[in-house]
Amino acid sequence: MAALTKVAKVSEIPAGSGKVVEVGGKTVALFNCEGTFYAVENECKHQGGPLGEGSVSGTTVTCPWHGWEYDVTSGACAFDSSVAVQAFPVKVEGDDVLIGV
């Protein structure tokens, strides 16, 4: 596993929401899916929309620009199986959320 870096507090990201964080020189979208945290690269493969600002339903984030959907557990695109955003490992320690890049 990649080195883990603290990026947020659990209390900062309510269930069903996301937050954009910077870690290891990358912009990452961090999501709280009913208490389980997932992280993917923040840039939609369609036209670069900010996934961290998208709406979350279950484990699917919808890009706010053009509606492309991604599974935050794997980064897979719902519309095209050949397209994916990078997913990153996440660990929660107490109230700290850590991401590995």
Task: List strands and helices in order, with pairings.
Elements: E1 4-9, E2 17-23, E3 26-33, E4 36-41, E5 55-57, E6 60-62, E7 69-71, E8 87-88, E9 90-93, E10 96-100
Antiparallel strand pairs: 1-10, 2-3, 3-4, 4-8, 5-6, 6-7, 9-10
Describe the overall structure.
This protein is mostly beta strands and 101 residues long. It has a single domain (4-100), classed as Rieske [2Fe-2S] iron-sulphur domain (Rieske Iron-sulfur Protein). Helices cover 0% and strands 47% of the residues. It contains no helices and 10 strands. It has strands at residues 4-9, 17-23, 26-33, 36-41, 55-57, 60-62, 69-71, 87-88, 90-93, 96-100. The strands form 3 sheets. It has a 4-stranded antiparallel sheet with strand order 2-3-4-8, with no helix packed on it. It has a 3-stranded antiparallel sheet with strand order 1-10-9, with no helix packed on it. A 3-stranded antiparallel sheet has the order 5-6-7, with no helix packed on it. Strand 3 (26-33) and strand 4 (36-41) form a beta hairpin. The relative contact order is 0.26. The mean pLDDT is 96.
